[in-house]
Amino acid sequence: MFVRVAGRRIALGITGSIAAYKMVEFARRLTQAGAEVQVVLTHGAAQFVQPLAFQAVTGRIVVSEMFAMQDERAAGHVALGAWADVVLVAPATAHALARFANGFADDLVATTILAARGPVIVAPAMETHMWRHAATQANVARLRERGVRIVTPESGELASGEIGEGRLAAPERLAAAIDEALAGSASLQGRHVIVTAGPTVEPIDPVRLLTNRSSGKMGYAVAVAARDAGADVTLISGPVALAAPVGVRLVRIETAAELLVALLAALPTADVVVMAAAVADYRPVAAAPGKLKKNGGEIVLRLVENPDVLRAAVAAKRKGTLIVGFKAETGDAVAAARTMLVAKSLDLVAANDVSAPGSEFGSDTDQITIVSAEGAEVLPLLPKAEVARLLVDRIAASIRSGSG
Ligand code: CTP
User: Fold this and answer.
1) Of 121-125, 200-204, 274-278, 356-360, the least confident
2) Is 192-401 in the same CATH topology as 9-184?
3) Where do the structural domains in the chain lie, given as residue ranges?
4) What whole-number distance in Å separates Cα of residue 326 and Cα of residue 328?
5) Cα dihedral sign for 20, 22, 25, 27?
6) Computed over its alpha carbons, how large is the radius of gyration of the chain?
7) Cα 311 to the chain's mean position, in Å?
8) Separation of 308 CA from ligand 1 center, angstroms?
9) Mutate which of 273, 329, 340, 352 to test ligand 1's pocket (most atoms within 8 Å of Cβ)?
10) Which of 212, 295, 306, 352 is labelled catalytic?
11) pTM for the whole thing?
12) CATH 3.40.47.10 is right for the domain spanning 192-401
């Protein structure tokens, strides 16, 4: 069932759901496959399963108390997050999801998620209506946005006797999620990855600006996926309504000209540049020094073309730096991506039809096709975090094969 867990450290958080009993067998198999498994029980979970059962199968003392770990002088309550190669919380109750989504640190499972340095996987289990509730779904979306991998529940008989969605994912799916996380976890180790994200804004006068609908979600997801793959990440971002990802160097810019300066400054050490920013193609010739007044008639705004940041990066990069462009089109994005790949001498282009359902600006899902000299790889419609991970896997594969 497990492929990559031997010698790896897994923190296994268990919250108060009846499905907790299933994790004893899972922890046993994980340990047998060679993983070091540290079980953390919430107080709720300890109502359903005995710590001793986990202790017997993992050979490690089960922990629950925030400040009762052996050496609190070394900040024991955050040590587990740093120790683990992967954190898996299964089962996660609706309440646990709400606490994680809001960044609570009120027990050792929640604290371990906050302190985690590597991938975090959460497998919810609950009654169908609770799972479908807008509050739960919003919490799941928020966690996904931050790069948490969600192993969605399955349909079947629930503890209440009802049939519906909400059963904890089968052990095979939990195992696959751990393996996948470990596979990706070191694929960009030691690499410097620059990601540009969000829109640029071009001032018209002190209060008005030209911009576009980019939410920055895709670029931020790529930055998080690259971080989880072990990369040192510089995220150059236009103004967006997203929180700064932990463990990523964030450089804020506003205009295309500022983006160009920030990118060229970071470029000499870069192994990869992912150009997800929606750069404004034009800017006003000059921003008016004072607020423009209405005059009762038409006004003419004169625009000049912005520098092509991507072309500048390709021209200035050292040999071997892999450059990834994005091509958003309404219509056939793949054909346009192929043209751009050649015209701008890129290694990969992520093509995206922004008029297709699920891929619109601002959405949490995306359907992209990864275009390279070798061909086009069509990905399904997926949450942006998943799209980002697949793109990062593809980038890591290109680096391994020495292109760029
Ligand atoms: N880009 C850039 N600098 C610009 C404009 C775009 O670096 N001034 C980058 C984007 O970040 C994206 C890619 O170029 O990665 C796609 O830009 P796009 O404008 O769609 O490509 P073009 O081939 O220039 O398309 P068009 O001529 O239709 O504008």
Assistant:
1) 356-360
2) yes
3) 9-184, 192-401
4) 6
5) negative
6) 24
7) 27
8) 7
9) 340
10) 212
11) 0.75
12) no
